[in-house]
Amino acid sequence: MMRLAAAGFAAAAFAVPLLTARPRALLVIDLFGLLLAALGIAMLWRWPVTAAACVFLVDYAAGLWLVSISPRVIGATVFGLSLLLLLQCVELARATRGATIEAAVIRSQGRAWAGFGAGTLAAALLLVAAAGGVVDTIPFTAAPFLAAVGALGVLLTLAATVRGGWRSVRRSHEAQ
User: Fold this and answer.
1) Residues 68, 69, 73, CA angle at the centre, nearest 5°?
2) How far apart are CA 133 and CA 158, in angstroms?
3) DSSP state, residue 70
4) Which conformational region is residue 101 in: left (phi greater than 0), alpha (psi within -120 to 50 degrees), or beta?
5) What is the pTM of this model?
6) First to last CA, the chain
7) What is the pLDDT of residue 44?
8) Which of 6, 13, 76, 104 has minimal CB crowding within 10 Å?
9) Number of independent structural domains in the chain
């Protein structure tokens, strides 16, 4: 059940960047992210799912940059929640591998995710309203630098995740 939910969230993370911008280059990057997500969901490995989330995030940012628009609050929230819930679903599936899960647990998790999503949307709307006043204080020339720092953070996270994933795969093969 969690794998199916994770696949749905991966599909949402795949679709949002393509709805933002339609260049073929984004489709190739998005397909690579979807392939990583499918590998992680099938094998219940953290590193490919985390790498897929990073690929989807870079693809979404590139799509916004290519079409030169600012993200819409609803689309960005759906995208961010899709990434978060993709990671949570895979981790929950890993933690409950081989266990029998009752329907009450799934309903409880669904209610928790719905509440979290509603709270996140409300917080995003409040932050967008508050950011209107802050935007005038940031010099326009600093915006590319701030974007580059954010992109560097994503790439470093991706590199650390992939490196850690290969270490755990190597250790599991050595143990066998």
Assistant:
1) 155
2) 33
3) P
4) beta
5) 0.71
6) 29
7) 93
8) 104
9) 1
Task: Please tell me the distance from the alpha carbon of residue 85 to that of residue 53, in angstroms, as a whole number.
Answer: 11
CB-count burial class (<10 Å; 0-12, 13-18, 19+) for 39 = middle
Give the pLDDT score at 51: 93
Domain span holding position 122: 2-175
Six-digit token string for 45: 């490995």
Detail the DSSP E strand segments found in the chain: none
Residue type, 69: I
For 135-166, what is each residue's pLDDT tens digit? 777 777 877 787 788 778 877 877 777 676 66
Q: Return the number of other C-beta atoms located less than 10 Å from residue 102's C-beta.
A: 8
Distance CA 7, CA 15 (A): 12
pLDDT at residue 149, as a whole number: 83
In SS3 terms, 96-138 reads as CCCCCCCHHHHHHHHHHHHHHHHHHHHHHHHHHHHHHHHCCCC
| Number of Cβ atoms within 10 Å of the Cβ of 60 | 26
